[in-house]
Amino acid sequence: MPDLFSNTPQQVLLPGSPDAHEPECELFYVPDFLCSDTGVKLFDELRNQVNWQQDRLNIGGREVAIPRLNAWYGDTGANYSYSGIQLQTHPWFPALTELKEQVCKLANHAFNSALLNYYRDGKDSVAWHSDDEPELGPMPQIASVSLGATRVFQLRHKKTGQRYNLPLESGSLLVMKGATQKYWQHQVPKQLDIIQPRINITFRRVKLVKV
Question: Domain segments of the chain: what residues?
Answer without folding.
Answer: 24-204
